[in-house]
Amino acid sequence: MISNEKSTHDVFLLTENGESVKLKRVPFTNKESASSFDELWLQELIEKYPEIIPTSQLGGDYTPLICIGREVAVGSGENTGYIDNLYITPSGMIVIVETKLFRNQEARRTVIAQIIDYAKEVQKWDAEKLDKIAQGYFDNSFGREANITIFEHLKEKNLVSEEDEADFYDSINSNLSKANFLLMIVGDGIRTGIQEISDFLKSNANMAFNLALAEVEVYEDGDRRVIVPHITSRTDVIERNIFSPEPVIISEASEKHSKPILSRRELISRFADNGGYDADEVTELVYDLEQINGIYISMAPTELQFRFSLPNGKSYTLLGLSIWNEQSDFYFIPSRVINDFERFGLSSAPAKDFCKSLIPMLKDQRNREPFFHANRSYYINVSLALQNRDKLIEQVEKFVLDCHEMAEKEKRD
Predict the structure, then answer these.
(1) Contact yes or no for 95/88 (Cβ under 8 A)
(2) Tell me: the pLDDT tens digits for 360-372?
Protein backbone atom coordinates (compact mmCIF):
# COMPACT_ATOMS: atom_id res chain seq x y z
CA MET A 1 0.00 0.00 0.00
CA ILE A 2 1.21 3.49 -0.82
CA SER A 3 0.30 6.53 1.21
CA ASN A 4 0.81 10.06 -0.06
CA GLU A 5 0.41 12.97 2.30
CA LYS A 6 0.56 16.68 1.57
CA SER A 7 0.33 19.00 4.49
CA THR A 8 1.27 22.54 5.32
CA HIS A 9 2.56 23.74 8.65
CA ASP A 10 2.06 26.96 10.52
CA VAL A 11 5.15 27.55 12.66
CA PHE A 12 4.96 30.02 15.52
CA LEU A 13 7.66 31.50 17.74
CA LEU A 14 6.57 32.35 21.28
CA THR A 15 8.32 35.51 22.47
CA GLU A 16 9.32 36.37 26.02
CA ASN A 17 6.51 38.92 26.30
CA GLY A 18 3.90 36.27 25.53
CA GLU A 19 3.30 37.10 21.89
CA SER A 20 3.24 34.53 19.10
CA VAL A 21 5.02 35.33 15.84
CA LYS A 22 4.20 33.29 12.76
CA LEU A 23 7.41 32.44 10.97
CA LYS A 24 7.67 32.76 7.23
CA ARG A 25 8.77 29.74 5.28
CA VAL A 26 11.86 30.30 3.15
CA PRO A 27 11.49 28.35 -0.09
CA PHE A 28 14.54 26.63 -1.51
CA THR A 29 13.54 28.05 -4.88
CA ASN A 30 13.89 31.63 -3.61
CA LYS A 31 16.65 33.22 -5.71
CA GLU A 32 17.95 35.10 -2.68
CA SER A 33 18.47 31.86 -0.78
CA ALA A 34 19.35 29.50 -3.63
CA SER A 35 23.08 29.93 -3.05
CA SER A 36 22.85 28.48 0.45
CA PHE A 37 19.65 26.44 0.29
CA ASP A 38 20.72 23.94 -2.35
CA GLU A 39 21.18 20.18 -2.45
CA LEU A 40 24.72 20.41 -1.06
CA TRP A 41 23.45 22.46 1.89
CA LEU A 42 20.75 19.85 2.51
CA GLN A 43 23.24 16.96 2.27
CA GLU A 44 25.53 18.61 4.80
CA LEU A 45 22.60 19.44 7.07
CA ILE A 46 21.34 15.85 7.33
CA GLU A 47 24.90 14.55 7.59
CA LYS A 48 25.54 16.70 10.65
CA TYR A 49 22.02 16.30 12.06
CA PRO A 50 20.72 12.90 10.87
CA GLU A 51 17.87 13.12 13.37
CA ILE A 52 16.28 15.65 10.99
CA ILE A 53 15.40 12.77 8.65
CA PRO A 54 11.98 11.65 10.00
CA THR A 55 12.67 7.90 9.92
CA SER A 56 11.14 7.50 13.40
CA GLN A 57 7.75 7.84 11.69
CA LEU A 58 8.51 4.59 9.84
CA GLY A 59 9.41 2.36 12.78
CA GLY A 60 11.85 1.93 15.64
CA ASP A 61 14.40 -0.06 13.64
CA TYR A 62 15.00 2.98 11.42
CA THR A 63 16.45 5.10 14.20
CA PRO A 64 18.87 6.39 15.34
CA LEU A 65 20.65 7.04 12.06
CA ILE A 66 24.46 6.99 12.00
CA CYS A 67 26.08 8.45 8.89
CA ILE A 68 28.68 6.13 7.35
CA GLY A 69 29.17 7.78 3.96
CA ARG A 70 28.80 10.86 1.73
CA GLU A 71 28.93 10.77 -2.06
CA VAL A 72 29.46 7.01 -1.95
CA ALA A 73 30.38 5.56 -5.37
CA VAL A 74 28.26 2.68 -6.67
CA GLY A 75 28.50 0.88 -9.98
CA SER A 76 31.42 1.24 -12.37
CA GLY A 77 32.46 2.94 -15.59
CA GLU A 78 29.75 4.93 -17.31
CA ASN A 79 27.21 3.52 -14.86
CA THR A 80 28.92 4.94 -11.79
CA GLY A 81 26.60 6.84 -9.48
CA TYR A 82 27.02 8.46 -6.10
CA ILE A 83 24.80 7.98 -3.06
CA ASP A 84 24.33 11.37 -1.40
CA ASN A 85 24.14 10.14 2.20
CA LEU A 86 24.48 6.61 3.57
CA TYR A 87 23.38 5.62 7.07
CA ILE A 88 23.11 2.59 9.30
CA THR A 89 21.17 1.90 12.50
CA PRO A 90 22.14 -0.14 15.57
CA SER A 91 19.79 -2.90 14.37
CA GLY A 92 21.76 -3.27 11.13
CA MET A 93 19.27 -1.46 8.89
CA ILE A 94 20.85 0.34 5.92
CA VAL A 95 19.34 3.67 4.88
CA ILE A 96 20.14 5.23 1.49
CA VAL A 97 19.27 8.92 1.12
CA GLU A 98 19.09 11.05 -2.01
CA THR A 99 18.53 14.80 -1.78
CA LYS A 100 16.56 16.43 -4.60
CA LEU A 101 15.02 19.87 -4.87
CA PHE A 102 11.75 20.58 -6.58
CA ARG A 103 13.37 22.98 -9.03
CA ASN A 104 15.56 20.10 -10.22
CA GLN A 105 13.58 18.58 -13.10
CA GLU A 106 15.39 15.28 -12.59
CA ALA A 107 13.79 15.02 -9.17
CA ARG A 108 10.39 14.69 -10.72
CA ARG A 109 11.37 12.28 -13.46
CA THR A 110 14.10 9.85 -12.47
CA VAL A 111 14.98 10.12 -8.79
CA ILE A 112 13.01 7.01 -7.78
CA ALA A 113 14.54 4.91 -10.55
CA GLN A 114 17.95 6.32 -9.61
CA ILE A 115 17.79 5.42 -5.94
CA ILE A 116 16.50 1.93 -6.74
CA ASP A 117 19.44 1.45 -9.12
CA TYR A 118 21.74 2.43 -6.27
CA ALA A 119 20.03 -0.13 -4.05
CA LYS A 120 20.65 -2.83 -6.66
CA GLU A 121 24.37 -2.03 -6.57
CA VAL A 122 24.51 -1.94 -2.77
CA GLN A 123 22.83 -5.37 -2.73
CA LYS A 124 26.05 -6.78 -4.24
CA TRP A 125 28.06 -5.69 -1.19
CA ASP A 126 28.79 -7.55 2.03
CA ALA A 127 29.45 -6.33 5.56
CA GLU A 128 33.20 -6.21 4.95
CA LYS A 129 32.81 -3.82 2.01
CA LEU A 130 30.39 -1.67 3.98
CA ASP A 131 32.93 -1.49 6.80
CA LYS A 132 35.63 -0.31 4.37
CA ILE A 133 33.37 2.42 3.01
CA ALA A 134 32.50 3.55 6.52
CA GLN A 135 36.14 3.47 7.63
CA GLY A 136 37.11 5.81 4.79
CA TYR A 137 34.30 8.14 5.81
CA PHE A 138 35.28 8.04 9.48
CA ASP A 139 38.91 8.79 8.58
CA ASN A 140 37.88 11.87 6.59
CA SER A 141 35.35 13.02 9.16
CA PHE A 142 37.65 12.68 12.15
CA GLY A 143 40.63 14.19 10.32
CA ARG A 144 42.80 11.21 11.17
CA GLU A 145 43.08 7.49 10.54
CA ALA A 146 40.27 6.34 12.76
CA ASN A 147 40.73 2.72 11.66
CA ILE A 148 37.51 1.61 13.33
CA THR A 149 34.68 -0.58 12.13
CA ILE A 150 31.01 0.41 12.03
CA PHE A 151 30.36 -1.70 15.10
CA GLU A 152 33.22 -0.10 17.03
CA HIS A 153 31.87 3.32 16.09
CA LEU A 154 28.41 2.40 17.37
CA LYS A 155 29.92 0.96 20.53
CA GLU A 156 31.74 4.22 21.19
CA LYS A 157 28.35 5.94 21.02
CA ASN A 158 26.92 3.39 23.51
CA LEU A 159 24.38 2.20 20.93
CA VAL A 160 25.48 -1.45 21.02
CA SER A 161 27.26 -3.74 23.46
CA GLU A 162 30.06 -6.24 22.90
CA GLU A 163 27.75 -9.26 22.78
CA ASP A 164 25.71 -7.70 19.95
CA GLU A 165 28.54 -7.87 17.38
CA ALA A 166 27.77 -11.24 15.78
CA ASP A 167 24.04 -10.52 15.47
CA PHE A 168 24.78 -7.04 14.14
CA TYR A 169 26.93 -8.28 11.24
CA ASP A 170 24.56 -11.19 10.56
CA SER A 171 21.79 -8.61 10.23
CA ILE A 172 23.84 -6.44 7.84
CA ASN A 173 24.69 -9.38 5.58
CA SER A 174 21.08 -10.55 5.59
CA ASN A 175 19.77 -7.07 4.76
CA LEU A 176 22.35 -6.63 2.00
CA SER A 177 21.58 -9.97 0.38
CA LYS A 178 17.84 -9.17 0.22
CA ALA A 179 18.19 -5.46 -0.60
CA ASN A 180 16.34 -4.93 2.66
CA PHE A 181 16.96 -1.17 2.74
CA LEU A 182 15.12 2.02 3.53
CA LEU A 183 15.36 4.34 0.54
CA MET A 184 14.73 7.97 1.46
CA ILE A 185 14.33 10.88 -0.94
CA VAL A 186 14.68 14.12 0.99
CA GLY A 187 13.87 17.48 -0.58
CA ASP A 188 11.86 20.66 -0.39
CA GLY A 189 8.55 19.42 -1.73
CA ILE A 190 9.08 16.64 -4.22
CA ARG A 191 5.82 15.20 -5.52
CA THR A 192 5.40 12.11 -7.61
CA GLY A 193 2.39 10.15 -8.75
CA ILE A 194 1.22 7.20 -6.69
CA GLN A 195 1.03 5.08 -9.82
CA GLU A 196 4.64 5.89 -10.66
CA ILE A 197 5.82 4.62 -7.27
CA SER A 198 3.60 1.57 -7.56
CA ASP A 199 5.04 0.72 -10.98
CA PHE A 200 8.59 0.86 -9.66
CA LEU A 201 7.67 -1.41 -6.76
CA LYS A 202 6.05 -3.98 -9.03
CA SER A 203 9.07 -4.01 -11.32
CA ASN A 204 11.39 -4.62 -8.35
CA ALA A 205 9.26 -7.06 -6.36
CA ASN A 206 12.28 -9.27 -5.62
CA MET A 207 13.81 -6.55 -3.44
CA ALA A 208 12.71 -5.97 0.14
CA PHE A 209 13.34 -2.22 0.25
CA ASN A 210 10.97 0.39 1.65
CA LEU A 211 10.68 3.79 -0.04
CA ALA A 212 9.77 7.12 1.50
CA LEU A 213 9.76 10.76 0.39
CA ALA A 214 10.41 13.41 3.01
CA GLU A 215 10.04 17.17 2.79
CA VAL A 216 12.23 19.57 4.73
CA GLU A 217 10.73 22.99 5.37
CA VAL A 218 12.97 25.87 6.43
CA TYR A 219 11.73 28.86 8.42
CA GLU A 220 13.81 31.84 9.50
CA ASP A 221 13.66 34.22 12.41
CA GLY A 222 16.54 36.65 12.06
CA ASP A 223 19.72 34.61 12.21
CA ARG A 224 17.93 31.52 13.50
CA ARG A 225 16.56 28.73 11.33
CA VAL A 226 13.74 26.37 12.17
CA ILE A 227 13.72 23.03 10.34
CA VAL A 228 10.42 21.13 9.98
CA PRO A 229 10.76 17.65 8.38
CA HIS A 230 7.86 15.33 7.56
CA ILE A 231 7.02 12.32 5.42
CA THR A 232 5.05 13.16 2.28
CA SER A 233 4.88 9.77 0.50
CA ARG A 234 5.88 6.30 1.49
CA THR A 235 5.41 2.65 0.79
CA ASP A 236 3.62 1.05 3.71
CA VAL A 237 6.53 -0.27 5.77
CA ILE A 238 4.43 -3.09 7.18
CA GLU A 239 4.07 -4.56 3.71
CA ARG A 240 7.80 -5.00 3.30
CA ASN A 241 10.30 -7.21 5.07
CA ILE A 242 12.45 -5.32 7.58
CA PHE A 243 15.06 -6.31 10.17
CA SER A 244 14.27 -9.46 12.14
CA PRO A 245 15.52 -9.60 15.72
CA GLU A 246 16.82 -13.10 15.10
CA PRO A 247 19.86 -13.73 12.87
CA VAL A 248 18.89 -15.12 9.48
CA ILE A 249 21.14 -17.75 7.95
CA ILE A 250 20.95 -17.66 4.18
CA SER A 251 22.20 -20.66 2.26
CA GLU A 252 22.46 -21.08 -1.48
CA ALA A 253 19.44 -23.39 -1.39
CA SER A 254 17.30 -21.04 0.67
CA GLU A 255 18.10 -18.14 -1.64
CA LYS A 256 16.87 -20.14 -4.64
CA HIS A 257 13.67 -21.25 -2.91
CA SER A 258 12.93 -18.27 -0.66
CA LYS A 259 9.28 -17.54 -0.06
CA PRO A 260 7.73 -14.43 -1.61
CA ILE A 261 7.08 -11.51 0.73
CA LEU A 262 3.36 -11.11 1.17
CA SER A 263 1.63 -7.81 1.69
CA ARG A 264 -0.13 -7.32 5.02
CA ARG A 265 -3.51 -7.79 3.35
CA GLU A 266 -2.41 -11.03 1.68
CA LEU A 267 -0.92 -12.42 4.87
CA ILE A 268 -4.02 -11.58 6.94
CA SER A 269 -6.25 -13.12 4.29
CA ARG A 270 -4.22 -16.34 4.29
CA PHE A 271 -4.06 -16.33 8.09
CA ALA A 272 -7.85 -16.03 8.28
CA ASP A 273 -8.44 -18.70 5.63
CA ASN A 274 -6.12 -21.18 7.33
CA GLY A 275 -7.85 -20.83 10.69
CA GLY A 276 -11.40 -20.20 9.53
CA TYR A 277 -11.44 -16.69 11.02
CA ASP A 278 -13.17 -13.57 9.79
CA ALA A 279 -10.55 -11.59 7.84
CA ASP A 280 -12.19 -8.27 8.75
CA GLU A 281 -12.00 -9.10 12.46
CA VAL A 282 -8.33 -10.05 12.17
CA THR A 283 -7.66 -6.83 10.25
CA GLU A 284 -9.37 -4.78 12.97
CA LEU A 285 -7.29 -6.48 15.67
CA VAL A 286 -4.08 -5.78 13.74
CA TYR A 287 -5.13 -2.16 13.18
CA ASP A 288 -6.02 -1.61 16.86
CA LEU A 289 -2.68 -3.01 18.04
CA GLU A 290 -0.83 -0.90 15.50
CA GLN A 291 -2.44 2.28 16.83
CA ILE A 292 -0.97 1.81 20.31
CA ASN A 293 1.84 4.27 20.92
CA GLY A 294 5.16 2.42 20.88
CA ILE A 295 3.89 -0.55 18.85
CA TYR A 296 4.73 -0.86 15.18
CA ILE A 297 4.52 -3.65 12.62
CA SER A 298 7.19 -5.35 10.57
CA MET A 299 6.75 -8.06 7.96
CA ALA A 300 8.65 -11.25 7.30
CA PRO A 301 7.83 -13.65 4.45
CA THR A 302 5.43 -15.73 6.57
CA GLU A 303 4.64 -13.59 9.57
CA LEU A 304 3.53 -10.22 10.83
CA GLN A 305 5.34 -9.01 13.94
CA PHE A 306 4.10 -6.50 16.50
CA ARG A 307 7.30 -4.88 17.69
CA PHE A 308 7.78 -2.66 20.70
CA SER A 309 10.35 0.10 21.08
CA LEU A 310 11.82 0.14 24.57
CA PRO A 311 12.40 3.50 26.28
CA ASN A 312 16.15 3.08 25.67
CA GLY A 313 15.65 2.81 21.90
CA LYS A 314 15.99 -0.98 21.66
CA SER A 315 13.15 -2.95 20.10
CA TYR A 316 11.94 -6.53 19.90
CA THR A 317 8.96 -8.63 18.85
CA LEU A 318 6.15 -8.62 21.42
CA LEU A 319 3.55 -10.65 19.49
CA GLY A 320 3.41 -12.31 16.10
CA LEU A 321 0.92 -13.63 13.56
CA SER A 322 2.42 -16.41 11.44
CA ILE A 323 1.34 -18.75 8.69
CA TRP A 324 3.02 -22.04 7.90
CA ASN A 325 1.59 -24.36 5.25
CA GLU A 326 -2.08 -24.56 6.25
CA GLN A 327 -1.55 -23.46 9.85
CA SER A 328 -2.10 -20.06 11.47
CA ASP A 329 -0.53 -19.09 14.81
CA PHE A 330 -0.76 -16.08 17.11
CA TYR A 331 2.30 -16.43 19.30
CA PHE A 332 4.60 -14.83 21.86
CA ILE A 333 7.74 -15.99 23.67
CA PRO A 334 7.61 -14.96 27.36
CA SER A 335 11.22 -15.81 28.21
CA ARG A 336 12.55 -13.77 25.30
CA VAL A 337 10.44 -10.72 26.18
CA ILE A 338 11.53 -10.89 29.81
CA ASN A 339 15.18 -11.63 29.02
CA ASP A 340 15.33 -8.67 26.62
CA PHE A 341 14.28 -6.32 29.40
CA GLU A 342 16.92 -7.70 31.72
CA ARG A 343 19.57 -7.70 28.99
CA PHE A 344 18.91 -4.01 28.33
CA GLY A 345 19.24 -3.23 32.05
CA LEU A 346 15.53 -2.68 32.68
CA SER A 347 13.19 -4.15 35.25
CA SER A 348 11.33 -7.15 33.83
CA ALA A 349 8.24 -6.55 35.98
CA PRO A 350 6.10 -4.99 33.19
CA ALA A 351 7.03 -7.84 30.82
CA LYS A 352 6.14 -10.50 33.39
CA ASP A 353 2.82 -8.84 34.17
CA PHE A 354 1.99 -8.63 30.48
CA CYS A 355 2.86 -12.29 29.82
CA LYS A 356 0.76 -13.39 32.80
CA SER A 357 -2.20 -11.42 31.44
CA LEU A 358 -2.17 -13.59 28.30
CA ILE A 359 -2.39 -16.92 30.14
CA PRO A 360 -6.22 -17.07 29.97
CA MET A 361 -6.02 -16.77 26.18
CA LEU A 362 -3.48 -19.55 25.62
CA LYS A 363 -4.40 -22.05 22.94
CA ASP A 364 -2.98 -25.02 24.82
CA GLN A 365 -3.63 -24.65 28.55
CA ARG A 366 -1.25 -27.54 29.30
CA ASN A 367 1.66 -25.34 28.21
CA ARG A 368 1.26 -22.84 31.03
CA GLU A 369 4.27 -24.03 33.04
CA PRO A 370 7.16 -23.49 33.28
CA PHE A 371 6.02 -20.17 31.87
CA PHE A 372 9.00 -17.84 32.20
CA HIS A 373 11.84 -20.31 31.83
CA ALA A 374 11.44 -22.31 28.64
CA ASN A 375 12.61 -20.50 25.52
CA ARG A 376 9.59 -21.57 23.53
CA SER A 377 6.61 -20.07 21.76
CA TYR A 378 3.21 -19.97 23.41
CA TYR A 379 0.16 -19.84 21.18
CA ILE A 380 -2.83 -17.61 21.77
CA ASN A 381 -6.29 -18.89 20.92
CA VAL A 382 -7.15 -16.60 18.03
CA SER A 383 -10.90 -16.98 18.49
CA LEU A 384 -10.57 -15.94 22.15
CA ALA A 385 -8.33 -13.03 21.16
CA LEU A 386 -10.90 -11.81 18.62
CA GLN A 387 -13.77 -12.21 21.10
CA ASN A 388 -11.79 -10.37 23.78
CA ARG A 389 -10.11 -7.84 21.50
CA ASP A 390 -10.75 -4.90 23.84
CA LYS A 391 -9.21 -6.81 26.75
CA LEU A 392 -6.12 -7.69 24.71
CA ILE A 393 -5.71 -4.08 23.54
CA GLU A 394 -6.08 -2.93 27.14
CA GLN A 395 -3.32 -5.30 28.29
CA VAL A 396 -0.92 -4.12 25.57
CA GLU A 397 -1.69 -0.46 26.35
CA LYS A 398 -1.08 -1.12 30.06
CA PHE A 399 2.21 -2.82 29.23
CA VAL A 400 3.38 0.17 27.16
CA LEU A 401 2.30 2.63 29.88
CA ASP A 402 4.06 0.60 32.60
CA CYS A 403 7.25 0.60 30.53
CA HIS A 404 7.24 4.37 30.11
CA GLU A 405 6.44 4.95 33.79
CA MET A 406 9.32 2.62 34.71
CA ALA A 407 11.67 4.56 32.42
CA GLU A 408 10.63 7.89 33.95
CA LYS A 409 11.15 6.51 37.46
CA GLU A 410 14.62 5.26 36.58
CA LYS A 411 15.49 8.71 35.19
CA ARG A 412 14.39 10.37 38.44
CA ASP A 413 16.30 7.85 40.55
Answers:
(1) yes
(2) 888 765 455 555 5
